[in-house]
């Protein structure tokens, strides 16, 4: 089994954007004007939720949808065992004959909805914090991996607030419980973030290296090489702490410490020109090139099951 999650962005803007409103509006530059779900535009949660139901109902032999928990505001967290290319693409067909893929499209649903309704750059959950008027916890600082020891804040008003305790957030707990309940069959864990064009592996909460560091480094090197073959997009790679910065409480480190030895984080396009406001016109090429890296990792895992 390979596990994929979509979690909040890891990092802040590192460049000064003079007119944030115009940049955010420029995100929506796709010529696709479908009223429903489209792979080439940003979709709100209602559209994504409907899509998960649609693809499951249209492909009952290939896709199943299950609820693994609820958010603070009561939204259901759905996980898909999903594929669109079975029988049409030789490598994906082989992978899906031999492996199960679990895809969690959105982890922080409450926060994602808030980015559409109130504040586009929101990153935290929408839970209340005792003794504070500030809302939310950063889910990517809330896992029990060196929790709140570095690169995270104990102040509920800060963007990287780690929460009142590890797994304090319902969203984090739901994902962690799913992984714990299926740990014996999960061979790889991939989490998809933005931005910086990096492929990271443990550890981020410490400068120590994982036991299979040489293997993970070799996998990352080969994966980013594959990624670059399509559009020439250059990625850097390495352990999280030394490659991007130290940060505790990430799901990739936690998954690795649970025994999933192939655990990676993708930081997608770009390197800072658009940052978290990547235009829709870059969605397709980003997905195309990232899939090449994912296929490489999948093939490697299939040949190195443990």
Automatic annotation (TrEMBL):
Q: Name one Pfam family in it.
A: Peptidase_M14
Instruction: Give the matching SMART domains.
Output: Zn_pept
Q: Which residues form the Peptidase M14 domain?
A: 8-301
Q: Which UniProt keywords apply?
A: Carboxypeptidase, Hydrolase, Metal-binding, Metalloprotease, Protease, Zinc
* PROSITE patterns assigned to the protein according to its UniProt record, in alphabetical order: CARBOXYPEPT_ZN_2, PEPTIDASE_M14
* Active-site residue list: 267
Query: Per its Swiss-Prot or TrEMBL entry, what cofactor is needed?
Result: Zn(2+)
InterPro entries listed in its UniProt record: CARBOXYPEPT_ZN_2, Peptidase_M14
Q: Which GO terms describe its biological process?
A: proteolysis
Q: What is this protein called?
A: Peptidase M14 domain-containing protein
């Amino acid at each position: 089994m390979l596990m994929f999650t979509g979690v909040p962005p890891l990092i802040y803007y590192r460049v000064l954007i003079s007119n944030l409103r115009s940049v955010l509006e420029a995100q929506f530059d796709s010529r696709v004007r479908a009223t429903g779900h489209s792979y080439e535009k940003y979709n709100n949660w209602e559209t994504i939720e409907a899509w998960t139901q649609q693809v499951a109902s249209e492909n009952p032999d290939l896709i199943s949808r299950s609820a693994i928990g609820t958010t603070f505001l009561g939204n259901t967290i759905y996980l898909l065992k999903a594929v669109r290319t079975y029988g049409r693409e030789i490598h994906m067909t082989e992978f899906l004959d031999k492996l199960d893929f679990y895809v969690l499209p959105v982890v922080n649903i409450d926060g994602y909805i808030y980015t559409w309704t109130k504040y586009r750059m929101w990153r935290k959950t929408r839970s209340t914090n005792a003794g504070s008027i500030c809302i939310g916890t950063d889910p990517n600082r809330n896992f029990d991996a060196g929790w709140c020891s570095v690169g995270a804040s104990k102040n509920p008003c800060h963007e990287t607030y780690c929460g009142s305790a590890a797994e304090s957030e319902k969203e984090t707990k739901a994902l962690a419980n799913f992984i714990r309940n299926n740990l014996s069959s999960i061979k790889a864990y991939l989490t998809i973030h933005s931005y910086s064009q990096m492929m990271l592996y443990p550890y981020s909460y410490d400068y120590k290296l994982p036991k299979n560091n040489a293997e993970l480094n070799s996998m990352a090197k080969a994966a980013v090489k594959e990624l670059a073959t399509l559009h020439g997009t250059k990625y850097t790679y390495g352990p999280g702490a030394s490659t991007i910065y130290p940060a505790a409480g990430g799901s990739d480190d936690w998954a690795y410490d649970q025994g999933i030895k192939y655990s990676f984080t993708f930081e997608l396009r770009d390197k800072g020109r658009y940052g978290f406001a990547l235009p829709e016109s870059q969605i397709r090429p980003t997905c195309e090139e990232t899939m090449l890296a994912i296929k490489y990792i999948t093939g490697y895992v299939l040949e190195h099951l443990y």
